Amino acid sequence: MSALENIAWKRRLGRLWTLMRARDEQKKLVLLYHAIGDGPGAIQKHCFANQIGLLNRAAAILPLGDLLTRPAPAGVAMSITFDDGYACLRDNAHQILADFGLTAAVFLNTGEMGDQERRPSREECGYYPGERFLSWRDVKSLVSAGWGIGSHGVGHVDLTVASAETRRDELSISKQAIEERTGAACNVFAYTWGRHNGRLREAVRCSGYRYALAGGHSAVNLRSDRFAIPRMNVAKEYTLDDLAAIVRGDWDYLGWIARARTALS
Prior knowledge:
Blueprint: H1 3-20, E1 26-33, H2 45-58, E2 60-61, H3 64-69, E3 75-84, H4 88-99, E4 105-108, H5 136-144, E5 148-151, H6 164-182, E6 188-190, H7 198-206, E7 211-213, E8 232-233, H8 240-248, H9 253-264
Parallel strand pairs: 1-3, 1-8, 2-3, 3-4, 4-5, 6-7
């Protein structure tokens, strides 16, 4: 099934789900983006600006640390996050968010970053094609602008199938690099492709992180495992109507499907 066919089914099922459920009076959401710009996998700048405008009208957009640690305000609260750490965040996403008075959090693969040079992404490693990574100088600029910085590992590695030594090194080396470079605590880890298991969650906890971000299409609530915080990916193919449906909760059924698959596996 193509990406567009998959989204068409999400829309159809979302309309049915809307008729069957009551709306939540308040909820927290974490959205996941990757690249903003002209790259083949990136969301175009004008589309991202329109999305942020819609989200800013529909929800309270908070720094991730506030969203995770403070009680939810009335209505919908959300945080914007990015994985991998592409230079287009400094060049494009930063200014668009700043125009709305907003910031985001970015989760870095620290092994891909140079002091000042922007290294090219490698699609064979699971990165978006045609991108370059932030430099540490770029990261310091984002920190100065109020962005949150977290770890995505040293490399783009599926830690659920890695050795214990690799898990430990990926978690600790990336955390230490971010803290040394930014002067701030690195408290949040984002799993590669959202994949995690019990061993990995325990390794994250033992490495000194307070939270970890997973995948899945669910709101963050009091039952959420703080080492498996759900995060909703925003696909390049999504329209503004799709994003509005996510905020309303029309696609919340996707979280139930994912939990049912996990329970049956």
